[in-house]
Amino acid sequence: MNTPLWQTLQAALQQSGSRIVLDDGTHRYQADELLAAVDAAASALAAYRVVALAADNGCDWVIADLAALQAGVTLVPLPLFFSPAQQAHVLASSKAELLLQPIPGAPLFPGCRTLGATVLQPDATGHSDSAKITFTSGTTGAPKGVCLSQTLLLATTRALLDASGGASLRSHLAVLPLSTLLENVAGVYRALLAGACCHVPPLAQVGLSGSSGFDVARLCRALDTYTPASLILVPQLLGELVAAAQAGWQVPASLRFVAVGGARVAPRLVEHARALGLPVYEGYGLSECGSVVCLNTPEQDRPGSVGRVLPHVSVEVVNDELVITLPDASGYLGDPASFSTCVKSGDRVRIDADGFVHVNGRSKHLLITAFGRNVSPEWVESELLAQGVIRQCVVLGEALPALVALVFAPGADDQHVQQALDHASLSLPDYARVAHFIRLETPLLPGSPLMTDNGRPRRALIAEHYAAALAALTLPRTGVQA
């Protein structure tokens, strides 16, 4: 396997010398120390072809990842929030020969201070030649593996480095799981290529616990402790930070670039964040594209859009769908025919006269109400979130006479929530107005059973989960018959 990404990162680390480039709150690595640890781990990985990695955020996760790049081994990041059945599916379908994970009492893997190794399939066949297989959790129980090359990952990393401020961003704090491609590429690889320090504390230290627990106070403390220049957030976490800032938390002056993506972001949330000192820039990407495709930047910014297309890819709009051309092919594990440099996004978009991309929602997410009206739930959700009262919402309405919203609105009583719905209705046609709401006691968090790891709602599962609550509602017939 060619290793252009590793060779580029290695050169950047060699230039960094004795500078601290990796820190998880317990261990810190100068660039030369990191290179030595990666070299030791890469030598141990050289006997394998496909290696799985199941660990919390930390220096050892990054060392194992870089070692796989150096050794030309296919790495399979195993999200800890996957169910046991999903994890078993990932290991079996990827034909992983080795599993790296914390094993109390077991010998440590070379180069790592917390990870042990379990041999899984010493005679595995049919391995992938890809650098990384990232598994995305969709609406079904079996995650799908996306195969990515070092060439594609390097092109994405370089484009992100240039777009986000280059070497001026001297530190980054990983808030999302490192098994999330967005954090892996736009966070770790971008920071190391820039010669910046990448802070990768355990997820509990930044407020994430289990599949649905989140403590915004811990995230605020982590930001105060590490004072990073950059962050990557999903909309739910951005909303929590905005609420914390409104309640008196002081945004660190060190922050220069906060990328937010994974799901549609209400323009008003971006405005509120910036007014409070959070330099937020919305982007857009797909795992099949190696992560980010479009991004707003301080120099090229249009709130309400997902930014301009990054220079390593090209796009066209075909029947309102964004089609992306990549610098190297990607595809799905076990499906050779799927490998292509052309990716159909499934997203309905428009590109304005200045080249900014506006996403209007997923084609497959269109709701068809009982009155035969097509409604994009992302459109309605954006209008609801723009009111500033509701922090998270998911709109349901397939085959229903009227729309229903699941809402998370801490600090607001039902009357204030209803007022927000009524105000949003002023800018919506009657068939797209929300007739009823169901309160969420806690937010739906990335990686939880009802959300993807990038923060997108699993709409089919959500509708199934709340079927009884929906059936109990007496919905007004507010739709307009065809």
Automatic annotation (TrEMBL):
Cited Pfam families: AMP-binding
InterPro entries: AMP-bd_C_sf, AMP-binding_CS, AMP-dep_synth/lig_dom, ANL_N_sf, ATP-dep_AMP-bd_enzyme
GO MF terms held by the record: ligase activity
Keywords: Ligase
All residue ranges annotated as the AMP-dependent synthetase/ligase domain in the record: 11-328
Superkingdom classification of source: Bacteria
Protein name, per record: AMP-binding protein
Species per Swiss-Prot/TrEMBL record: Craterilacuibacter sinensis
Taxonomic path: Bacteria, Pseudomonadati, Pseudomonadota, Betaproteobacteria, Neisseriales
